[in-house]
Design a protein that fits this description.
mainly beta; 43% strand; 2 helices; 191 residues; OB fold (Dihydrolipoamide Acetyltransferase, E2P); SH3 type barrels; four-stranded antiparallel β-sheet
Amino acid sequence: DLPALRYQPLNLRVIELHFLSVYFFSGLSDTMADEETGEYHATDSGASKTYPMQCGALKKNGYVCIKGRPCKIVDYSTSKTGKHGHAKAHIVGIDIFTSKKLEELCPTTHNMDVPNVSRTEYELVDINDEGYCELMVGDSGETKADLTLPNGEVGDTIKKNFDNGAVVIVSVISAMGEEAIVGSKVDGKAE
């Protein structure tokens, strides 16, 4: 039987409603099992693809998301506006995967998303006919073959060194669920 809430002060009603919701819904399970099959659903580690940073704290050669794309900042300038206006930052960035130039104008007090960017090195095992690279993951001998050889000078250098029989270590950059080969080393020398 639910108690009457009509004549109680508001703060007591809120506490009592919270108690009632905890009482009635505490028996529900927090697991993510499918009711029909009983299978559990896996999720990722929970790490965010981006984090917020105040626009005024961004620096040249850092990273920022412009129009939803991860970019490396190549030019950053600030300007004061009128008497009561806010300082604005003009940010020019290059998309780290497509190399397209993107620009953003943002008040320096506002937050912008900054991508979590990581760089990993893998040993190149093979390049197939379609241009996909087979890369060795760690010392376990496992391989991954989901990245293509990049176009341009970087890809040409990797292919030439691999065809000459050299041990090629490729550098892979990853951000916001995307990965790409961005450089290489041969016998410890950067290419």
